[in-house]
From TrEMBL, chain A:
It is a multi-pass membrane protein. The chain crosses the membrane at residues 15-39, 65-89, 109-132, 139-159, 243-265. The gene is cysW. Coiled coil: none annotated. Residues 63-270 form the ABC transmembrane type-1 domain. The complex is composed of two ATP-binding proteins (CysA), two transmembrane proteins (CysT and CysW) and a solute-binding protein (CysP). Keywords: Cell inner membrane, Cell membrane, Membrane, Sulfate transport, Transmembrane, Transmembrane helix, Transport. It is found in: Cell inner membrane. It holds the Pfam family BPD_transp_1. This is Sulfate transport system permease protein CysW. One of its GO terms (cellular component) is plasma membrane.
TrEMBL record, chain C:
One of its GO terms (cellular component) is ATP-binding cassette (ABC) transporter complex. This is Sulfate ABC transporter ATP-binding protein. Residues 3-237 form the ABC transporter domain. It comes from Devosia geojensis. Belongs to the ABC transporter superfamily. InterPro entries: AAA+_ATPase, ABC_SmlMolc_Importer, ABC_transporter-like_ATP-bd, ABC_transporter-like_CS, Mo/tungstate-bd_C_term_dom, P-loop_NTPase, Sulph_transpt1, TOBE-like. GO terms for biological process: quaternary ammonium group transport. PANTHER family: SPERMIDINE/PUTRESCINE IMPORT ATP-BINDING PROTEIN POTA (PTHR42781), SPERMIDINE_PUTRESCINE IMPORT ATP-BINDING PROTEIN POTA (PTHR42781:SF4). The lineage of its organism: Bacteria, Pseudomonadati, Pseudomonadota, Alphaproteobacteria, Hyphomicrobiales.
C-alpha cells in the first residue's frame, strides 16, 4: 500500500527509517559492541591461549564452584517459587499484595547489600558466626556464604514468573481434578505442573543466568580465596586486575556464551509459548 | 494452620478453599523468605540502629560517604534519563515498525539482564579505554570515558536500558489504534498525536521504567567498578565504598552506608508502587 | 453537507473489500450502513472519514472533491465502537482536544474553548462530570463524551462506527433514541454503521444494505422491509420464508401443482420469498398447501412449520396464536406480498 498520503497512525517511511537507524546504532554501541568485545579480546592471542587459560586449575575450580552454587541455589528457589505462587495464586487472603511486593524486594536491593547483610550476620562480631565456627561450620568466606548470597539475589526469579501465570490460570483446573478424586499431590503433578511448565522453565533460565553470573553479592562474602571461593565472575575480576586480560576475557566469554544461550532459549520460549508464559515479562 | 479464622462471623484472614496445601506452601514461603531475606536485612538495620541516631549521623555525614552517594545519585540520574529517552524510542520502534532483524534486536534488549555484570564491566572498559575501539575515537576529541564519571554513566546505561524498554513496550503495544485515529479525525497532526495523545498515556510506564533503571543503577556494582576509576569524591560509587569499608573490617561503617542505600531502595519501591496505583486508579491500567 | 461516493473501490493486499460502490448521502439525513461482518460497511465509513484511501473512485463533500484530503483536513466527526477516549485526559480535556490542536490562527481563545466544551457536556447531559476521567464513567457516558468530542469541531459529517455495539441492551436502546434526538436537533449529516437491523430500522432515515463489498439496496426502512430487491436483503432484513418454485404458463408451480400465484412473465426455475407473518389462510387447491410439522406459540402469534410439496420443503408461517393447527393437519395459505427471484440469481447472491 504505497501512498504518499500521510497516515493517521504511523510515521512516514523516511522518519521510520531514521528512528530505526538511531535505535539500532544505540543498541549496537551499548549492547552489541560489548558482547563482541568479550569474544574478540578472548581470542586476541589465538585459540591456543584461549583454551590453555580455560584449562588452568584456577579456572577449572572457578567453573566447578559456579556450577555447584547454581545447582544448589536454583532448585531451592524453584521450590520456593512454586510454593509462593501456589499460596498466592490459589487462595485469597489478606496481605497478599504486600507479600508479592516483598518477594520482589531483592531486585530493588543492591547486590553489595545482599552480600553485606550476610557478612553482618555471620562475620566477626556477629552472634551466629563464632557460634557456628565453634561447630566447625564456616559460612563467610566459604561456599555456604556464596550460596546464601546467590539465593538472595536470585530469590524472586521463579516466583515472579509463576505468580502472575498461576493467577491468570485460576483454580478451575485444580478444582476439577479434586472433584474427580485426585489427591492434592496428584493434582499438582498432573494438572498444575503441566500448565506452568514453560513459565517455570522461563523462570529457571533467568534464575540460573543470574546465579552463575552474580558478582557483587558474591564478591563481598567470598573472601576470594583462589581455587576455593572464587566463582567464575570473581575469577574474571582477579585475572583482570592482574593484567591477565586474555585469560580474564576467555573466562568471561564462557559467561557471555551462557548469556547468549539464555537469551536464545528465552526468545524461543517467548515466541513459541507466549500464551503459556506470564503476561508481564518486563523487568529484571 | 490451614484454618486461621477468628470466630464464625466477621473478619476472615483467608477465604475458605477446597484446594489443599495452603498451610504447607504459605508456611514454607514465609519461613524461606524470613531466613533468606528478612532476618539478614534485619541484621543490617539492627547493626545500624545500635549506633543510635547521633552515631549513625556521624558515620553517614562522613565526607567520603556523602561524596560516594552523590556520585551514585548524579550518575544514576543521568543514566536513567538517557535510558528513558532511548528506551522509549527503542520500545516504539520495536512495537510500531517492521524491519529485518526486528526480533533479533528485540531479543538483544535483554542482554544486560543475561550478561554477568563483571563481564559487562570489563567489556565496556575494553571498549572505552583510551586504547579501546571507541575510546581511541573519542581521545582526540578530548573525551575520556573510562576511569571517569562518564564511564559510570555508560555502564549504568548498559544495565538500565532493558528496564525502560520492557516497561514501556507492553503498554505501548496496548495503545489502541482507534485512539490515534480519533485524534486524527479531530484534526491533530502526527506530531500532536504522538506528543499529546500517545506519550502522555505512556507516562506511568515511562516513570516506572525510569525509577527501575535508577534504582538498579544506584545499586549496581559489578559493571561499574572496572570502568569507573574509583577515585574518592570523583568516581567512587556508594556500593564500592561499602566493599572498601568491609575490607577495612569497618563493619559499622559499611552497615551505615548499606542502611542508607536500603532506605533509598525502599523509597524507590514505594515510588514505583505509588505510580502504578495512581495510574491504575486514574487511567484504569497499570502493571 | 451532501456526501457523494463515486465508484469507490478498496483493496487490502489484493483482496477487494469494496467493489465500485456508489452512494449519494443527502444533506442532513441519518443513514445507516447495514450488513453482516465483512460486508464492507466499516471500510466504506472509514473511506468517507479519510482513515483509509480508496484504491479507485472519488468521494465528494458537496461539490468539493475530498478524495485527496487527509483525515485531518476533512473535518468530520468520528465516533468509535470502543469510544477511543483519551484516558489520560479528563472529560473536559477530551471534548476540547479538537479545538486545542488547531493551528494558532484558527484556534479559539482558551476561555472560548472551555465554554464551548462545557456547553457540549451539557448538551450530552453530562454536566458536572467535566473533571472525571474516562475510566470513571460508564459505557453509555463514555459514548456520550465521544459524541460531544466529535461535535466540538463542528464537523461537516458525523460518522459513527457501531456506536452502541459495546453497550448493554438497555443502555443501547436508550442511547439509540437519544442519538435520534441529537440528530434532529443538530441536523448533521450522519452516517452510522451497524449490523443490528432493528437498530437501523428504528433509527435511520434511509438504509444502505451491504453484502460482500457491494451495496444491495438503498431506501427508507419501509421500502427495504416491504420491497426487498434481492434475496440477500429478504433474508437479512426481517424474517423470510423461501421456496423453490417453477414458473410456467404464467403461473407458479410446486411439484406439479399450481399454487395460485402469477409468474409475472418469468419462466423457469425460481425461488419464492415472503414474510412468515404476511400470509392469508385460504381454502381450496390453488394455494400453497402443506402438512404441519410443528406448531409453537411465540408471544402473540403461533409459529407453524410446514412441509410443502412432494419434496417436503420446510417453511415457517405465523398464524394467530389461537389457531388450532395440530401436527400432521393440512393447511393452505397464500402470501399477501411476495417476490420471485430466478434461481441463478439466488445462488449468486446469497453467501
Amino acid at each position: 500500500m504505497a501512498n504518499r498520503y500521510p497516515s493517521a497512525t504511523s510515521e512516514s517511511r523516511p522518519v521510520q527509517w531514521l528512528l530505526i537507524a538511531i535505535c539500532l546504532a544505540f543498541m549496537a554501541l551499548f549492547l552489541v559492541l560489548p558482547l563482541y568485545a568479550v569474544f574478540s579480546e578472548a581470542l586476541r592471542q589465538g585459540l591456543g591461549a584461549f583454551f590453555s587459560s580455560l584449562q588452568s586449575p584456577d579456572a577449572q575450580s572457578a567453573i566447578r564452584l559456579t556450577l555447584t552454587v547454581a545447582v544448589i541455589a536454583v532448585p531451592l528457589n524453584v521450590v520456593f517459587g512454586i510454593c509462593a505462587a501456589w499460596a498466592i495464586a490459589k487462595y485469597e487472603f489478606k496481605g497478599k499484595a504486600l507479600l508479592i511486593t516483598l518477594i520482589d524486594l531483592p531486585f530493588s536491593i543492591s547486590p553489595v547489600i545482599a552480600g553485606l547483610v550476610y557478612v553482618l550476620l555471620f562475620g566477626a562480631g556477629s552472634f551466629l558466626g563464632p557460634w557456628l565456627k565453634s561447630y566447625g561450620i564456616e559460612v563467610l568466606f566459604a561456599v555456604p556464604g556464596i550460596v546464601l548470597a546467590t539465593i538472595f539475589v536470585t530469590f524472586p526469579f521463579v516466583a515472579r514468573e509463576l505468580i502472575p501465570l498461576m493467577q491468570d490460570q485460576g483454580t478451575g483446573d485444580e478444582e476439577a481434578a479434586l472433584s474427580l478424586g485426585a489427591s492434592g499431590w496428584q493434582t499438582f503433578m498432573r494438572v498444575t505442573l503441566p500448565n506452568i511448565r514453560w513459565g517455570l522453565l522461563y523462570g529457571v533460565l533467568l534464575c540460573n543466568a543470574r546465579a552463575m553470573g552474580e558478582f557483587g553479592a558474591v564478591a563481598v562474602v567470598s573472601g576470594k580465596i583462589r581455587g576455593q571461593t572464587t566463582t567464575m565472575p570473581l575469577q574474571v575480576e582477579m585475572l583482570y586486575n592482574e593484567y591477565n586480560a586474555t585469560a580474564a576475557f576467555a573466562l568471561a566469554s564462557l559467561l557471555a556464551l551462557l548469556a547468549l544461550v539464555t537469551l536464545v532459549l528465552k526468545s524461543l520460549l517467548e515466541w513459541r509459548f507466549s500464551d503459556e508464559l506470564a503476561a508481564t515479562n518486563g523487568g529484571h | 494452620m490451614a484454618h486461621v479464622t477468628t470466630g464464625s462471623s466477621g473478619w476472615r484472614w483467608r477465604q475458605p478453599s477446597v484446594i489443599p496445601g495452603f498451610g504447607m506452601t504459605f508456611g514454607f514461603t514465609l519461613v524461606y523468605f524470613s531466613l533468606i531475606v528478612l532476618i539478614p536485612l534485619a541484621a543490617l538495620v539492627v547493626r545500624s540502629a545500635g549506633l543510635g541516631l547521633d552515631g549513625f549521623l556521624r558515620y553517614a555525614s562522613d565526607a567520603r560517604v556523602i561524596g560516594a552517594l552523590r556520585v551514585s545519585f548524579v550518575t544514576a540520574l543521568i543514566a536513567a534519563s538517557v535510558n528513558v529517552v532511548f528506551g522509549t524510542l527503542i520500545a516504539w520502534v520495536l512495537v510500531r515498525y517492521r524491519f529485518p532483524g526486528r526480533r533479533l534486536f528485540d531479543a538483544i534488549v535483554d542482554l544486560p539482564f543475561a550478561l554477568p555484570t563483571a563481564v559487562a564491566g570489563i567489556a565496556l572498559t575494553a571498549i572505552y579505554a583510551p586504547n579501546g575501539s571507541i575510546g581511541a575515537l573519542l581521545a582526540p576529541l578530548g573525551i575520556r570515558v573510562a576511569y571517569t564519571p562518564l564511564g559510570i554513566v555508560v555502564a549504568m546505561i548498559f544495565i538500565g536500558l532493558p528496564f525502560v524498554v520492557r516497561t514501556v513496550q507492553p503498554i505501548l503495544d496496548e495503545v489502541n489504534k482507534e485512539v490515534e485515529e480519533a485524534a486524527a479525525t479531530l484534526g491533530a497532526n502526527r506530531f500532536q498525536i504522538v506528543w499529546r495523545v500517545i506519550l502522555p498515556g505512556l507516562t506511568p510506564a515511562i516513570l516506572t521504567g525510569f525509577a527501575l533503571a535508577f534504582a538498579r543503577a544506584v545499586g549496581e556494582y559489578g559493571s561499574i567498578i572496572f570502568i569507573a576509576g574509583n577515585i574518592p569524591f570523583v568516581s567512587e560509587i556508594a556500593p564500592l565504598l561499602i566493599v572498601i569499608r568491609l575490607e577495612e573490617f569497618n563493619y559499622v561503617g559499611a552497615a551505615v552506608i548499606g542502611t542508607l542505600m536500603l532506605g533509598i531502595a525502599f523509597m524507590m519501591l514505594l515510588v514505583i508502587n505509588l505510580i502504578q496505583a495512581w495510574s491504575r486508579k486514574r487511567f484504569g491500567y497499570g502493571q | 453537507m451532501e456526501v457523494r461516493i463515486d465508484k469507490v473501490r478498496k483493496e487490502f493486499d489484493r483482496f477487494a473489500a469494496l467493489h465500485d460502490v456508489s452512494l449519494d448521502i443527502r444533506s442532513g439525513e441519518l443513514i445507516a450502513l447495514l450488513g453482516p461482518s465483512g460486508s464492507g460497511k466499516t471500510t466504506l465509513l472509514r473511506l468517507i472519514a479519510g482513515l483509509e484511501r480508496p484504491t479507485n473512485g472519488k468521494i465528494f463533500f458537496g461539490e468539493e472533491d475530498a478524495s485527496d484530503k487527509t483525515v485531518q483536513e476533512r473535518n468530520i466527526g468520528f465516533v468509535f465502537q470502543h469510544y477511543a477516549l483519551f484516558r489520560h485526559m479528563t472529560v473536559l480535556e477530551n471534548i476540547s482536544f479538537g479545538l486545542k490542536v488547531r493551528p494558532k490562527e484558527t484556534r479559539p481563545a482558551s476561555a472560548d474553548i472551555r465554554r464551548k466544551a462545557l456547553e457540549l457536556l451539557d448538551f450530552v447531559q453530562l454536566s458536572g462530570l467535566d473533571k472525571r476521567y474516562p475510566n470513571q464513567l460508564s459505557g453509555g457516558q463514555r459514548q456520550r463524551v465521544a459524541l460531544a468530542r466529535a461535535l466540538a469541531i463542528e464537523p461537516r459529517v458525523l460518522l459513527l462506527d457501531e456506536p452502541f455495539g459495546a453497550l448493554d441492551a438497555q443502555v443501547r436502546r436508550e442511547l439509540r433514541r437519544w442519538l435520534r434526538e441529537v440528530h434532529d436537533r443538530t441536523g448533521h449529516t450522519t452516517v452510522f454503521v451497524t449490523h443490528d437491523q432493528e437498530e437501523a430500522l428504528e433509527l435511520a432515515d434511509r438504509l444502505c444494505v451491504m453484502s460482500q463489498g457491494r451495496i444491495e439496496q438503498v431506501g427508507t426502512p419501509d421500502e427495504v422491509y416491504d420491497r426487498p430487491t434481492s434475496p440477500f436483503v429478504f433474508n437479512f432484513i426481517g424474517e423470510s420464508s423461501e421456496l423453490a418454485v417453477t414458473a410456467e404458463n404464467k403461473e407458479l408451480w410446486i411439484g406439479g401443482r399450481a399454487i395460485g400465484l402469477p409468474s409475472d412473465g418469468f419462466e423457469g426455475q425460481g425461488r419464492l420469498f415472503f414474510r412468515p407473518h404476511d400470509v392469508d389462510l385460504v381454502e381450496g387447491d390453488a394455494a400453497l398447501a402443506g402438512v404441519v410439522i410443528s406448531s409453537r406459540r411465540v408471544g402473540g402469534t403461533r409459529r407453524v412449520e410446514l412441509a410443502i410439496g412432494g419434496d417436503a420443503q420446510k417453511i415457517e408461517i405465523d398464524l394467530p396464536f389461537d389457531h388450532p393447527a395440530g401436527e400432521r393437519s393440512r393447511l393452505a395459505f397464500r402470501p399477501k406480498r411476495w417476490r420471485l427471484f430466478p434461481t441463478a440469481e439466488v445462488h449468486q447472491k446469497v453467501p
